Amino acid sequence: MFDNLSDKLDKAFHILKGHGKITEVNVADTLKEVRRALLDADVNFKIAKDFTTRVKEKAIGEDVLTTLQPGQLMVKIVKDELTELMGGDVAGVNLSGNPSVILMSGLQGSGKTTFSGKLANFLKTKKNKKPLLVACDIYRPAAINQLHVVGDQIGVEVYSEPENKNPVEIAQNAIKHAKANGYNVVIVDTAGRLAVDEEMMTEIANVHKAIEPQETLFVVDSMTGQDAVNTAKAFNDRLNFDGVVLTKLDGDTRGGAAISIKSVVNKPIKFIGTGEKMEAIDVFYPSRMADRILG
Ligand code: GDP
Questions:
Q1: Considering the chain, what percentage of its residues have pLDDT values greater than 70?
Q2: Is residue 108 lining ligand 1, measured as CB closer than 6 Å?
Q3: Edge-to-edge strand list for the sheet holding 215-221
Q4: Cα of 114 from ligand 1 centre, angstroms
Q5: 16 labeled binding residue
Q6: 276 lines ligand 1 (CB under 6 A)
Q7: Average pLDDT over residues 109-113
Q8: What is the mean pLDDT of the segment spanning 154-170?
């Protein structure tokens, strides 16, 4: 995370107190700090550069509000831009279907299964929904078991067909089961691979096409830095997903992935995962994330 960027900016601009304008020269040094901090946080070089250019344009010539110190104004400009870059407003999930189908995508280990459980628990306890979890991983029996363990923990039924090797069929049968049994949300956990491969992409694209989910979420480990951006792009190209889930933000992660992913695929980050427990889920607030990044 950034080392007190706010403090650094404040110090850099303290000298300007009492002056009416922030000048180009004063801004340049500070923007170097901002750019370094963004790069440290794993933000892509071009994105960091574009970002500081925009902040510079805003800052130069802007009147320093009498009630604020120049440094604080600068922090505000940086924070507003960061918030904007990460999506501005909070984005929700589309629950308009009956049942609403949510398809989870992402690499193995990204936290898909854990998040599927967290989301089911969140919708059940906070939104009064009756969710059904669906295990669509036909390669790893352990993955099906894992989802059953999660389902037991939160008291949510898990639909699986361990003998069936056709994920499209499993997903379609699960939706029929949901309709017949009064479930109003169906969360489909799909198989993940360690890296993007054509077979996996075709498989999930087929499931996507067959079940037409209201919401397709892409789950990504926030600790994977630049790789997270490439993976997001590959999945978005095939699925045109609706939102991103950023997991493992409780770890020693810098959060720069949030900025890069949003800039590259232009899809909102909807949720964050902040731990292994079922309660460790949060709606993504761009302004909170900007605060966190600024330290
Ligand atoms: P999947 O292969 O994408 O289904 O990933 P899993 O749900 O099995 O998660 C992989 C590992 O990451 C497991 O050990 C999870 O407990 C862990 N995990 C998932 N989400 C989080 C999170 O938000 N924070 C932390 N610290 N660990 C997480």
A1: 86
A2: yes
A3: 158-159, 131-136, 185-190, 100-105, 215-221, 243-247, 269-273, 281-283
A4: 6
A5: no
A6: yes
A7: 96
A8: 97
Do residues 135 and 157 make contact, with C-beta atoms less than 8 angstroms apart?
A: no
> Ligand 1 in contact with 254 (CB < 6 A)?
no
Could you tell me the two tokens for 242?
Answer: 């609706």
User: What whole-number distance in Å separates Cα of residue 165 and Cα of residue 8?
Assistant: 57
- Reduced to 3 states (helix: H, G, I; strand: E, B; else coil), residue 103 is strand
CA distance 33 to 26: 12
Dist. CA 191–CA 167, nearest whole Å: 9
pLDDT tens digit sequence for 60-101: 766 644 445 666 777 788 889 888 888 877 788 999 999 999
* C-alpha span between 201 and 199 (Å, rounded): 5
Reported as half-sphere exposure (CB side, CA atoms, 13 A), residue 116 has a value of 35
What is d(CA 108, CA 220) in angstroms, rounded to the nearest whole number?
A: 10
Give the model confidence (pLDDT) of 47-56 as tens digits. Answer: 889 999 988 8
Ligand 1 closest atom vs CA 272: 23
What pLDDT digit, counting tens, does each position of 129-140 carry?
Answer: 999 999 999 888
* 36 annotated binding-site participant: no
**Which atom belonging to ligand 1 lies closest to the Cα atom of 143?**
4
